[in-house]
Write a structure and sequence with these properties.
Order of helices and strands of chain B: HHHHHHHHHHHHHHHHHH
Mean pLDDT of chain B: 90
Distance between the termini of chain A: 84 Å
Number of helices of chain A: 15
Number of helices of chain B: 18
Mean pLDDT of chain A: 91
Strand order of the largest sheet of chain A: 2-1-3-6-7
Strand content of chain B: under 5%
Radius of gyration of chain B: 23 Å
Helix content of chain A: 40-55%
Oligomer: heterodimer
Strand content of chain A: 5-15%
Radius of gyration of chain A: 21 Å
Low-confidence stretches of chain B: none
Order of helices and strands of chain A: HHEHHEHEHHHHHEEHHEHHEH
Number of strands of chain B: 0
CATH topology of chain A: Rossmann fold
CATH superfamily of chain A: SGNH hydrolase
Low-confidence stretches of chain A: none
Shape of chain B: globular
Largest sheet of chain B: none
Shape of chain A: globular
Structural class of chain A: alpha/beta
CATH architecture of chain A: 3-Layer(aba) Sandwich
Helix content of chain B: 55-70%
Number of domains of chain A: 1
Distance between the termini of chain B: 16 Å
Largest sheet of chain A: 5 strands, parallel
Chain lengths: ~325, ~475
Amino acid sequence: MRSFIFQIVVYSILLWLLNWGVGSYLRTYETKDLMETGQFFPALRWQEYYEREAPIDLLVLGSSHAYRAYDPKVMGVYLDKKNRIFNLGSAAQSPLISYYILKEVVEKQRPKQVVMDLYFMVFTNDNQLRNRRYNWGYMRPGAAKKAFFRDGFSTEEKVKLTAFPSLVFKDYLKPKINKLLGRPHLLKKKGTYQGAGFVSNSDSLTLEKLTYHNQFDAFQTERTAITEMNLKYLKKIKDLCASEHIPLIFATAPMPEISVKKIKNYTGFYQLFFKLAEAWNIPYIDYNINRIETLSDTDHFYDDDHLNAAGAQVFSAAVTKELQNILNPKDKK
Amino acid sequence: MLFNSFEYAVFLPVVFLLYWLVFTQLKWQNLFLLAVSYLFYGWWDYRFLSLLIFSSVVDFLVARQMEKTKMSLHRKRLLGISLFSNLGLLAVFKYYNFFISELITAFSGIGIDLDMGTLKVILPVGISFYTFQTLSYTIDVFRKKIKPVADWVTFFAYVSFFPQLVAGPIERASNLIPQFTKSRKFSYDQARDGMQQILWGLFKKVVIADNCAVVVNTIFANYTELNTISLILGAFLFSIQIYCDFSGYSDIAIGTARLFGFKLMRNFAFPYFSRDIAEFWRRWHISLSTWFRDYLYIPLGGSRVKSKARLVFNVAAIFLVSGCWHGANWTFIVWGALHALYFLPGILLGKNRRHLDVVAKGKVFPGLQDLINMSMTFFLVLIAWIFFRAESVSQAVDYIVRLFTSFDFSIRPLGKNVLLLFGITIMMSIEWLQRNKEHGLQLAVDQLNKPSRGIIYLTMAMAILLLAPKQPSVFIYFQF
């Protein structure tokens, strides 16, 4: 019995060490391969955030819809707050992730305004480990990161994150093998990091692609519902902003009109957000409902979901004007 | 609790240590096994524990009463109670909705609208397995093959023994109950063999079956738009998936039982190396096929009946019932019927027991005749698996028709899955080399030295960690 347990312990230690070595090597796909080519946006965003000295006046939170739509440079020009706007949106960022990002920010400073982009899809599931890790992994040690780890991950995920890097980074096995074999190993570039958290993409798409190869045709959004956990964290964001006296604004960046029409029950999601915002006395503008006339499906979107660089410019200008109206109602003409 | 889950990775070592280090007396070990087995089952849905307990109580009491009476009629009535209770559970939870919907469809065909509601129930995991296990006990007591168990803990632990509770092997009371009543001593060799079998089972399930599932699901969902090679690939990969999924589960179950000092019956004996269908059925899901043989086929007269028609009936009955056992769907019934058709020529010509030994015994490679026979058998089994996997019989037929009529042989789909095919080749090669052993990773101490064995174990464990698909899938046989 003792000999058997001893062997199991020895093999477990060897396996753990092997997993640690392999996992650490795979992690370099993020920290080196993708970073060096400017493709790993979460790390670039956090790196810039920690290196910047200027305080943040306006903070943008939300999913890829946020970091591809709210261009801090354009918004800075209109708000006369150059270099004081930062976009901490990230892929599939759920309210849970947004909450801990906001906690991390308010630990050091107090933004004058927070814009939270509400994309209904991220509210319909309790999001995957990868999207939470992208932010948690690159946040600096501190109270917010600690709380994020404690409340934002299941026990199984905590074990994976702390002891099994090979499980966490196993998606990078294929590109790493390709790299070792001298084959193309980098992801297809989905945009260029422009600084202050914003990512632009200059592609546009055809009407045919938008109409006949649209991802929303396959989604059964009429059967999906917003989860309790996401609503709970949205409320926590509201409460945190209130306790820190930071004005909070809800917005929804535009999607192609064709895509919106294909989303079953879009108005249902909108009404739910609208009622919440109304109950909490938070301004809310949904640009899929209140469309910007100059935005064109074929010129201003790079896929069936996101704005391209030109679209982001148009939208950022429009949303900034709206923000000015909200912040300074007297100036409203 | 799934064998390939985080919970089980914590559960197993804790239970193992407590079992050997704390509960050292037989009585306490059995009670502990009963408690952890209920925990294991209740983890999925504690409400269905009541069914497991109900089935155990009925069969425990029925068998005890059988012993007390010598009246044949009374014993038959008691057996009837057991059959009614266990098959009743199956009928309600597994077949009721199927029969009702079929009845409604049949009557609507002649213009009569039946107003019959279906039940909103989910199928309790493992119900087909543990009801058959308890049934075998009462039938054996009825036949006076075994004595009823006096100690309820022993019997309840036998019914609910967690390694094989939800997907077998369907153990016989004559094999497992004596192991609960004898004192168990820890054996290093047995435990090491158990760990090897668990590792092999996990490798087959997580690395091969779950990755096959990803491709198979896509192919079967879009088969109308795919070319011939894709359709062949889909059927081939499903054949591998179901084998690795189910035999992987059995390996983990048998290996886990070994850790606790139990020897469960073998459930798979490298079935894809069979040279005819009869051999396939001696090697595939052995615990179920021998159950049907002992409790259905032989009571019907088996193959020792005088008329050929009766023999055909007996064979057809066993395969059709086997199809029904898998699920309430015509696809399973057609699957069973196809196997009956495959099986009948051999038994009618008296050639069903030609291949009782291991193929190409003592040789590295099979002879040409063996290779042809194995390929033909695999092809027949593969065609039947299409029915097993399809959503409906019409979908399966359409799939097969397209397989033989849409002659587009672009090999691009193979290129996309070259790594998976490579993994399958490795797995099948190992099984071929180990085909005269109990399982693929049964490595004797003298077969390989310690460092080599260590490298194999660690490589496989790393493969399990790294190559599992993002979403772990449940074992296919959980649904039965």
